[in-house]
Amino acid sequence: MKKLLFVFVLLAFCLSEISGQTKRVKNVILMIPDGTSWATVSSARWYQRYLDPSKQHLFIDPYLCGSVLTFSVDEPIGDSAPTTSCYMTGVPSRAGYVATYPPVDTKNDLVPQDPNRAYQPLMTVLEAARIFNKMSVGLVFTCEFPHATPADCSAHSYDRGKYDWIAPQMVHNGLDVVIGGGIKYLIQEHQNYLKKENYGVYLDDIQGFRSHKGNKMWSLFGKKDMPYDLDRDEARYPSLAEMTAKAIEKLSANKNGFFLMVEGSKIDWAAHANDPIGMITDMLAFDKAFGVAAEFAKKNGETVVVAVPDHGNSGISIGNQRCYENHIVSLEGLFKNVSNYKVTAEKLVEILKKTEPSEIKNVFKKYTDISLKDSLVGVLLSSEDYAKSTLSATERMKGTNLKKTVTSIMNDNTCFGFTTGGHTGEEVFLAVCAPEKNRLSGMVTNVELNHYLKSILAVEDLEKYTADYFAKHTEVFKNYKWKIVKDDKKITLEVEKDKNTKLVVKPNSNIVLLNDKEIRLNSVVVYVDKNDTFYLPRIEIAGYGLK
Predict the structure, then answer these.
(1) What whole-number distance in Å separates Cα of residue 67 and Cα of residue 339?
(2) Which sign does the torsion angle of CA 103, 106, 107, 109 carry?
(3) Structural domains in the chain, sorted by start
(4) pLDDT tens per residue, range 109-128
């Protein structure tokens, strides 16, 4: 008990130190290279140096100042949903939870939890900055927009896969700028709402993205995610750096400042696939985006840029058991082969699926400079998903696929090693571009990083904001008649104050109907089926005569 008390006292002291050393700044840019381990950063740095010996440093290098211990509430190794959620809310959550309070697991919880708050949506620093500071807010990413990290900033769900909940919340949550992937998830209803709210909406329209004159925009590329940077068609898809620059241009028009989250989403995806060239080149694309943000911050003088991964991934190492005596392998020996890869493994698989068996060797040579042996061609032909194979379905090897085989062949020609295809639990890097007084440093936890963000944004009381804006309907309407109506998968909350006052609330939106008149709330309403509860802003509801 005494030991636990000491830990809490020490944590409180550290957080007070963070708060005491920082002051409100006008703009905050949080940049997350998803699933990026330290070795991924080192690999990108060496790769860049191999290609151009004059480039010995990354843009993040002058700003590296510490590390972050990031975790889920009940597991040392987190996934993107609870880890970024903690950065945004200050509450370590559970795997798959998007800015949502977790239920208690007394056996495994690393941080004490309040059982009465299970499944409650948690206000994020982005939402608080928009609502209380009147700041502009934006998201930039290369995955689909309802994916875990962007969603963590602007939506709430106990299941990161519930895109039918998350997507409308993001559309209705007052985001000024959204640039990334996921056209298929922005349904016509969402597009109509955004256009009615004077947003520029551009779908696979790079010219529209570049020429939009207003300061509110949704610009999405690709049906789902955007391509890896190495595979990107520059005529169709902007780089992460260009998207970051565009977001800053639009958001900085607000005299009250802005909050922007930029995610290098697919570093993580490449790490899951154990694809080093994808990891390296997407990390370099992220680094260029950081360079854009840091340059703006230096010129602006009122901006803090924080770069931090949400977790590690893959256990990548520079050096493996295939490269005997790694310590005497030259830079060329380590990076020449991977530098010859003109596409990621994912893209090469896409190309091979359209390739006749007789051309497999030529295609592999063209895109990787690897001369395939006949035995490896045979393995590719045996893949279950190679429709053009000369082998019948019964002659192919069960459980094999082109992606696994192609990745293995490419990796066998490098000196990179991998311990897993999943996330890893080591600390991740911290880089901060800020005035010295506002610069966080040392080894901090994900909770402490949130406290730093709250401090420089001056939104310290997130717990109170959560209580006010995500209150249970049973508390808000305890003095009135209310009922939850469920019909054909549609759920609404109907509230009657008297015969002349009726409120109709639907989930995942900021629009409620008061006597059939549309009222726009400052935050979204969230319904949780686990406890059959609507969460909504009690203060704003009270402002319309209901409390």
Answers:
(1) 29
(2) positive
(3) 27-316+422-467 (3.40.720.10), 333-417 (no CATH), 470-543 (3.30.457.10)
(4) 999 999 999 999 999 999 99
